[in-house]
């Protein structure tokens, strides 16, 4: 009946009778004694509460045990004035049909010609059929688990069929609590590659044979088989998702570190329900609270945490430079091995997480959707990366006997200190002087004219056309494009050519212009840090090439 639904809603509006899945489910006693509202009292109606459910692992578990499928044929689209002329219901247990109910229903008026052309039900067929009251009376015992809210019922474009059923029950004084699933809505979510999601189309797609299309019994059986297929797809997706999630779960040794961090947060009095740990593809363990607070890695050369430089004072642990991907010159790697070592970073853990929590609370306060941020936590941080208190204590016990990093021979590289100002640079290039750059006082015009050139240059740089890319970067710079991304791409191009003199020179310019455009540069400015680290590395290579 899906083709009628949209037309009906446009013509007559949609009757709002459905409850959400969060509404309380009525008990059997409440169904028998439910009070009527004024409108219902005037018409002496029953009351039917409907709850539309999505296919989830929880509902699938329930459906596997038992479910019903309904299909109706009607005199038309108006859910108030039109009537059901055929009711087909199939009962499934353990995925197999165990019982079915089917009846024609005399609507009490002549069958409209257009409806008859679709469902092939004629006035002659309905002449001796039971009335609506009689048919429902016969169906009540069959539908008992559904009407009491104990068992889920399904249909294709279920809103239509369930509302027709609900209205018929209410008219005849019956009250019920119906939970239902819609195979149409769920097929749209789960099935790809079909021209549409009509019942017949989906039946062909899944090779389900419908021996009696557009009749209640035939369509109900087809819908039941479709629901089983959708349940299988959901189960498969769930298994694939779980397998995908396992890639993000830290190893037991990594969880020993996670347990210590969680214990520090717990001991500080902050909540741990926002805390998550997950592994990135590069092997880092990200600590989220709920934003990424910091990360650590158990590498072959040693265990280390990436820490902003303002936190490294008075930390008596081995320290080396961080890489550009770790944040650049504004970060350091602090090596550790034991819980004793990690205790020295207690203030870093608590203050960083406190900053994340403060930011989270501010955004949550002004959010229109109070559930949004909680949903984001679970969405972005995979299942299995939370530690219960029991697991935390278990991993703490496992990791407590590790030796301090001071007892290990890590053989870490020594930081090379270079005074960039003392470097004599004589780069050969075609760049115009800064005082001849266009649009210096109109950054928006510089973006408009320069960005397309930069974008094209960066694309061909990645294709290996380095010199052509540099020429486009020169032109973008001349037009007034001054983004840090330009200078980073410039540097990568010169680095590829092993032209470290030009790389250092262009990074000097980029850092100078970035500082001038941001006089109150924060110590956490990532763009500055990346350019600074890249320049330092290029300077070391330049000195080595001159030996």
UniProtKB/TrEMBL annotation:
InterPro entries: Ribonucl_H (IPR013520), RNaseH-like_sf (IPR012337), RNaseH_sf (IPR036397), TPR-like_helical_dom_sf (IPR011990). Keywords: DNA replication, DNA-directed DNA polymerase, Exonuclease, Hydrolase, Nuclease, Nucleotidyltransferase, Transferase. One of its GO terms (biological process) is DNA replication. SMART domains: EXOIII (SM00479). The keyword Nucleotidyltransferase applies. SUPFAM superfamilies: Ribonuclease H-like (SSF53098), TPR-like (SSF48452). GO terms for cellular component: cytosol. This is DNA polymerase III polC-type.
